[in-house]
Each structure stands twice: as structure tokens, then as C-alpha cells.
Amino acid sequence: MKTLVESIAKALVDDPTQVNATEETEDGALVISLSVAKEDMGRIIGKEGRTAKAVRTILNAVSTKDNKKAVLKIVE
Fold this sequence. Notes:
Layout: H1 2-12, E1 20-26, E2 29-35, H2 41-45, H3 50-65, E3 70-75
Parallel strand pairs: 2-3
Antiparallel strand pairs: 1-2
């Protein structure tokens, strides 16, 4: 799932070399922390958080299919 989030983020940003995602387990849920360049933060979040919500929806659909829970955190 980490690679899925990285792939989506790299397609959205201007500087894909600055995209970094890490996975860790917290309270039985998979937590994916995504960090991008400061200039690209607006592209990841989107207007009123729409892009971030869409990425979270895709991540939720994939994790539900695998009977898991996944959470996306966007780190500044």
C-alpha cells in the first residue's frame, strides 16, 4: 500500500524525488506517513482537501479488500 500512495503522489507533484512514504503499525491499523516538498504540499492536499480525501478513499478501498485498516497521514 505504501507503493500505491507513493505512485499517486509522484504523479501529482512537480518534484517526485522528494516524495517519501513510510509504513508503521499503530493500534492494529497500518499508518502510512507521506511527505513531499514544501512547494508540492498544496498539490497533495488540493482545494479544500479534495485530493487528500480522494487518495484516502483509494487507500481505504484497497485496505478493505485485504480486510485491513489503513490511515494516511500527510506530514509537513
